[in-house]
């Protein structure tokens, strides 16, 4: 690590600790570690101002300043966090994909065409000829079958995306060198399954390269954590977890003329203030994690435009029902009535979010606009008394130590204190927090969830179905009614019936679930005006940097 980078990390440690200590209010703050968190995304139609600043970054290099602390792995079978998926998407191709800004119609990618049986269970994909991996190896059906079977065999976190359809490796088979067949274990709407195949879990890896790096039967997973073996527009040159990702253009990329920039540098910049300085000076081309005040400061500034949109991303408090007294529904309801939602949305986030209290985000089928919870201290105290806790209790809330999470956690701490609940804030880096969360190791957690693909199933299954070991499981909520309803909705062919099932499910989770749904994010990014084709993407997974130009 360079001296300046080390100094910045130390500065963030001190600032994070000081802010956490003095802003906390009732309860206490424990800093388990430091560094960073948050992942913001972009969208919207930019209004470009007249450039007045000469381009300071190289014309063939795109420099992005963002908080990358949530990244755990770049192995497509493991990648599941925002940063991990964003980077992985630049390194690999999939059978099908979306072409922004359209997130409704799936387009051919490695598969030039496909067929589906009348019952929707058997899919045949015809592989495009002439595609090469970055190694120079040709991409064939062997690689596609190996890649999908590998996800099923490894059963890592990202497998949850494919698990509802693919239970065993033999469901994916090679027909000939450029044809594969996938047999699903249940009927689903064709648009649903195709949407799932656009997620990074379905990325195609170079079988020969990955097998050459296998150790102890891991199918190359340890090596792929910080290397790439894809046919996408870029190759991972290096990943310094404390500093940056460096991506170089794939010399064998099959789309003519792309990528337009030869190098992508994604700098790990945890603090919004540092991102602001970089974008203002022109030392970064894009800044992804600015505060609302900073965005307002940049609006109308020559040489910069702002990209906005509502994201398919919810922020919530998870309550582990295995931890007393969170096992009582009255206690969970009381917590919901303690919180000043409008104060978070309008005060801390200043419009960079909308109040949204159900688990399917606005913009998807089955999105439920109900917002029944509001701050009512008296009602919260009545519920606590009914649950047997008239004097409240003490609980831990784990959060990353950066904006806006620590600000929100501090406000929640103060809100719950009014109801007699003492909240001790525990700060962890995002990657450490999610690792522990995945093991059911947290009491309460301030976390976010982004839709893996533009279908309500992505959220419904995660929040409702403990059997797939995602959010419901992490919060020890083993509710068979919710799990069954989520599963039935995922296979319902009638759109209207499916929508009603999701409305019923979100109503049920509102009253019985282990979540306090706080808000849906509105992404705001600052982009230098010489950057072209930075397209809207409410998920952040589908932004294709090979189409971005400079100049």
Could you characterize what this model shows?
There is one protein chain. With 551 residues, the chain is α+β, with helices and mostly antiparallel strands. It has a domain at 92-206: Dipeptide-binding Protein, Domain 1 (Dipeptide-binding Protein, domain 1, Alpha-Beta Complex). It is 31% helix and 22% strand. A hairpin with a 5-residue loop joins strand 5 and strand 6. Helix 9 runs antiparallel to helix 11 and helix 14 (457-464) packs antiparallel against helix 16 (480-491).
CATH class category of the domain at 92-206: Alpha Beta
Terminal residue distance: 31 Å
Assign the CATH superfamily of the domain at 92-206.
Dipeptide-binding Protein, Domain 1
| Helical percentage | 25-40%
Q: Which regions contain 5 or more consecutive residues with pLDDT less than 50?
A: 1-26, 31-52
SS-based class: alpha+beta
Q: Sheet bearing the most strands, described?
A: 12 strands, mixed
Percentage of β-strand residues: 15-25%
- The CATH topology of the domain at 92-206: Dipeptide-binding Protein, domain 1
Record field, number of beta strands: 20
Approximate shape: globular
Number of helical segments? 17
The whole-number mean of residue pLDDT values reads 89
| Backbone CA Rg | 23 Å
CATH architecture of the domain at 92-206: Alpha-Beta Complex
Task: Give a short summary of the structure.
The protein has 551 residues and is an alpha+beta fold. It has helices at 3-22, 82-91, 141-154, 190-197, 207-212, 221-224, 272-281, 292-298, 329-338, 341-348, 377-386, 405-418, 430-437, 457-464, 471-474, 480-491, 495-512, and strands spanning 29-31, 61-66, 96-99, 102-108, 111-116, 122-127, 172-176, 179-183, 234-240, 244-249, 263-268, 286-287, 304-319, 353-355, 394-399, 422-427, 444-450, 515-528, 531-532, 549-550.
């Amino acid at each position: 690590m360079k001296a300046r980078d080390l100094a910045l990390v130390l500065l963030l440690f001190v600032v994070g600790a000081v802010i956490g200590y003095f802003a906390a209010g009732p309860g206490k703050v424990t800093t388990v570690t430091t560094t960073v968190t948050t992942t913001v995304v972009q969208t919207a139609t930019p209004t470009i101002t007249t450039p007045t600043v000469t381009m300071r970054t190289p014309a063939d290099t795109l420099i992005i300043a963002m908080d990358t602390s949530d990244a755990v792995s770049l192995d497509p079978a493991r990648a599941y966090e925002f940063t991990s998926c964003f980077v992985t998407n630049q390194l690999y191709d999939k059978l099908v994909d979306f072409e922004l800004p359209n997130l409704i119609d799936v387009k051919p990618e490695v598969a030039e065409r496909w067929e589906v049986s009348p019952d929707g269970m058997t899919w045949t994909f015809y592989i495009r000829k002439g595609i090469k991996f970055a190694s120079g190896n040709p991409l064939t059906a062997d690689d596609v079958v190996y890649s999908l079977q590998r996800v099923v065999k490894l059963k890592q976190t990202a497998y949850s995306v494919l698990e509802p359809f693919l239970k065993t490796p033999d469901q994916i088979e090679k027909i000939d060198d450029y044809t594969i067949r996938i047999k699903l274990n249940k009927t689903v709407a064709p648009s649903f399954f195709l949407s799932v195949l656009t997620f990074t879990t379905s990325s195609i890896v170079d079988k020969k390269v990955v097998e050459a790096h296998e150790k102890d039967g891991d199918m190359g997973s340890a090596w792929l954590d910080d290397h790439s073996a894809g046919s996408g527009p870029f190759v991972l040159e290096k990943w310094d977890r404390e500093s940056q990702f460096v991506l170089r253009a794939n010399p064998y990329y099959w789309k003519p003329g792309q990528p337009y920039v030869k190098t992508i540098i994604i700098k790990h910049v945890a603090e919004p203030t540092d991102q602001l300085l970089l974008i203002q000076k022109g030392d970064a081309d894009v800044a992804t994690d600015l505060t609302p005040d900073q965005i307002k400061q940049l609006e109308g500034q020559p040489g910069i435009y702002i990209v906005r949109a509502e994201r398919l991303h919810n922020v919530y408090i998870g309550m582990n029902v295995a931890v007393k007294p969170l096992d009582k529904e009255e206690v969970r309801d009381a917590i919901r009535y303690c919180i000043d939602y409008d104060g978070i949305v309008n005060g801390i986030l200043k419009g960079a979010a909308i109040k949204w209290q159900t688990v399917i985000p606005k913009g998807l089928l089955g999105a439920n606009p109900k917002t029944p919870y509001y701050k009512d201290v008296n009602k919260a105290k009545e519920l606590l008394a009914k649950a047997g806790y008239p004097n409240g209790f003490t609980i831990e809330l784990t959060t990353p130590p950066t904006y806006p999470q620590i600000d929100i956690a501090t406000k929640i701490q103060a809100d719950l204190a009014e109801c007699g609940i003492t909240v001790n804030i525990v700060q962890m880096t995002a990657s450490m927090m999610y690792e522990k969360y995945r093991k059911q190791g947290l009491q309460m957690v301030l976390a976010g969830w982004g839709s893996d693909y533009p279908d309500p199933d992505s959220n419904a299954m995660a929040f409702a179905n403990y059997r797939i070991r995602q959010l419901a499981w992490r919060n020890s909520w083993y509710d068979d009614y919710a799990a069954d309803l989520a599963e039935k909705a995922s296979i319902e062919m009638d759109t209207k019936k499916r929508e009603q099932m999701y409305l019923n499910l979100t109503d049920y989770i509102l009253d019985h679930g282990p979540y306090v749904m706080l808000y849906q994010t509105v992404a705001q990014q600052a982009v230098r005006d010489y950057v072209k084709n930075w397209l809207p993407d409410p998920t952040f997974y589908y932004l294709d940097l090979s189409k971005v130009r400079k100049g």
